[in-house]
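Hey L., structure's done. Input below.
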Amino acid sequence: MRKDGRQRLDDLAGMAGGAFSLISGMRAEMEAMARAQAEAMVRRLELARAEDLEAAFEVARRARAHAEALETRVLALEAQIAAMMAPRSEGDLSGGT
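Output:
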């Protein structure tokens, strides 16, 4: 009888192992299907991926820094032009007379 009981336990363990293997396979299949559905939804909704969004933020950051540098240059040039166009004081005009 001990052999019969041990055989039953071995059969039960084999069935449990098979069930576990089946459930693991089903889980992997469900995850793959969910991932495919999510990617299809992202494409349909035209959502950006995180990598694309990060790249766009980097481009925007660089453009902002460049625009700020250009603004500083323009302000400096405008100040130089204003200084050149400003009327001279009375003391500066005495050299010609």
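Residues 2-45 form the longest helix (44 residues). The chain has two domains: 8-47, 48-85.

-- N.
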